[in-house]
Amino acid sequence: MSNKSDFTTEEWNKILAAPYHASMLIVVSDFNLNFISEVSAMMQSVVASVEGSKSEFIREVAADFNQKGNQEAIKPELEKLQGEKDPAALKGAMLDYVRSAVDMVAAKSQEDSRVFSQWLLYLAQKTADASKEGGFLGIGAVRVSEQEQASLNELADTLNANNEK
User: Fold this and answer.
1) Read out DSSP for the chain?
2) Which residues are 139's β-sheet partners?
3) At what angle do helices 110-129 and 35-52 cross, to 10 degrees?
4) How confident is the model over 40-88, as pLDDT tens digits?
5) Domain range annotation of the chain
């Protein structure tokens, strides 16, 4: 089992930023005016993980994620992808970022890496489920759009591939 003290400050900040990137992958895959509720759903799920997760590692990551000072500390990690204008390249960069964060955890603990991967996928799913997509005045809308589902599948494939190493 790993914990914060097993990582450098830079590595830990990258781990803390991974939930943003996993969730933003879903937001940018089908960007609409509901993105605020989608990001809010991810944040609420992280908060719930502080107490609700069975994994000590996830509870530690979630608790640090929720500290205001850490939000400022991970800002450079979030800004790394800010200039990317091409949506496909941005999605690829986000997947690479998440993969890299999971690899760092795997170098310390395979079990924590597996749980971290599952948690990131859970947060992305919560993001996708947060609002209905498409339709008119709610008629014909779906909970998860095709684009969001494709991004969830890509994320799952990326995370599963990491855990098979």
Assistant:
1) ---GGGS-HHHHHHHHHHHHHHHHHHHHHT--TTHHHHHHHHHHHHHHHHHH-S-HHHHHHHHHHHSHHHHHHTHHHHHTTTT---HHHHHHHHHHHHHHHHHHHHHH-HHHHHHHHHHHHHHHHHHHHTS-BSSBTTBT-BSS-HHHHHHHHHHHHHHHHHHT-
2) 136
3) 140
4) 777 888 888 888 889 999 999 999 988 877 778 888 888 887 777 788 8
5) 4-163
